[in-house]
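Entry:
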Amino acid sequence: MSHASPTLRFAGETIALERGQTVLEALEARGVAVPSSCRAGACQSCTMRAVSGELPSESQAGLSPAKRALGHFLACVCRPAGDLEVASLGDAAELSATIVEVRRTSGAVLLVRLRTASPLDYRPGQFITLLRPDGLARPYSIASVPALDGPSELHLHVRHYPGGAMSGWLAGVREGVEVSLRGPFGECFYVAEDRDAPLLLVGSGTGLAPLYGIARDALAGGHRGPITLLYGARRAEDLYLREELALLAAEHDNLELIASALEVGEAVDVDGRALDVIALERAPADFSRGLRVFLCGAPALVNGLRRQLFMAGASMRSIFADAFLPSAPATGPSSV
C-alpha cells in the first residue's frame, strides 16, 4: 500500500516532496531563490518560518528558544515527514483593524485598543507596524496578551508628542476608524522554557508596554520564578499604569515592582536612582540561576545596560532587548 508524499506549500503553490528532499532543495527545484550558504545547518542564512505543519526537530537545532517558538527553521536540513506550509521571514501580510478606544493616562501616554478583523498570532512583547488610512506608518510594541485579552484585541502604549504625526492623530481620532497593521515582528517575548528562572524586566517610558505584556503572559503561563519589573520615567508623575501594576502584583507573590524617576518630587514609593544602577544592583546574584533579562525603551538605556549586564556575567543569549526610536524605522518599535 503506497502512501502519498508529503507536500510543501509556499506562496500559494503546492509542491510534492520527493523522498529525503529538503525544503531548500524543493524550493530551488521550483525556481524559488532562497538565501543559503553552508547547506549544512550552520550559517542559518536559509532560515524560514513554518506557517502550519510539524517541523522535524533537527531543522531547529541551534536556534534560540524565541526563534523556535516563532516556527523558524533551517530549510537546508528540513526534511518534512508530513505536509508543511512555509513562508519567508520577511513575509508580513497587511491586516485591517478598528480603533476601539484611545484613553489618555499620566505622562501624556495614550492607551490604544485595536480590534483586528481576524485573530493575530502574536506574542506579548513583539511589535506591529500601525498604518494610518493615508499610509503613514509607525511601529509599536504589543502590551496585550491573547490568552487574557483575546486574539483579536491589541493594546498599544503611545507617547503623545506635540507635533507627533501619528501620536497627534491618535490623540484626536474617533472610535471606529479603520487602520491597517503589519506584523508581528521581534523576538522580545517570554518563552516558557524554565518556569523557575528569575526574570528581570527593565523599561523606560513606553518601554513599559512590552514588559507589561511579557509579565502578564509569564504569570498567566504559570511562571514560578521571581519576576522583577523595574520601570522608570524622568518625572514621578510620568509613571503610568501604576494602579494596574499594583493590582497585578497583589495577585502574584512572585512579582516585584520597582518604580524609578530622576525627579521624584513628593512620591515616597519611587526610587530616585537611575534604572541601570538599580538593575545592576538586583541582577548579579541571579546570573547562575538562568536569569533572563528583557530591556525596552530609550536606546541609551537598552544598549548601555545590555553591555553592562554582559560585562557583569550575563549571557547575551539571555538578554532580550528592544530599543525605541523617535521615528519610524523598520527595525524596532517607536513612540511617536
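Residues 287 and 314 are 6 Å apart (CA to CA).
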